[in-house]
């Protein structure tokens, strides 16, 4: 013989909304509502109706004339919510890591651009100094050539 709480799936009938589950709930929850929200995967309403206050005692299962395993539905809904929250936390962490990486890469790119611009400025300054020295050297050569041509010519 099976114990009273051992029910087969064939024994389970639709909820008749008798309210016995709410009357015996030690946490003063509304198991009937929680059952409907769990069945429709309405996690927001489950949280609003304090699903996590359920201690899963099974009192609602015991008194249910429709033999619905309410506590089992509540355990499953809690697990679904935990998985959903874990997924959201992973997604948030991935988003934060992505944003951090994107910011770091942008900063590195700016630094590279600044270093390249500084190198170009230094190269331009060096080229400018080189061009000026070349002009000065040409002028000096002309001056030396003029002085040597003046010293070679006889004084009159």
Question: Can you characterise this structure?
Answer:
The protein has a domain at 10-87. 69% of the residues lie in helices and 0% in strands. The chain has 5 helices and no strands. It has helices at 20-24, 31-39, 43-48, 59-63, 70-152. The radius of gyration is 43 Å and the shape is rod-shaped. The mean pLDDT is 89.
Topology readout:
Elements: H1 20-24, H2 31-39, H3 43-48, H4 59-63, H5 70-152
Quick structural gist:
Helices cover 69% and strands 0% of the residues. The protein is mostly helical and 156 residues long.
Which outline best applies?
rod-shaped
What's the gyration radius in Å? 43 Å
Structural class: mainly alpha
Please give the alpha-carbon distance between the first and last residues.
Answer: 147 Å
Number of strand segments:
0
What is the helix tally? 5
Instruction: Tell me about the largest β-sheet.
Output: none
User: Helical content, roughly?
Assistant: 55-70%
- Give the low-confidence spans: none
* Amount of beta strand: under 5%
Output mean pLDDT: 89
> Could you spell the SSE succession in H and E letters?
HHHHH
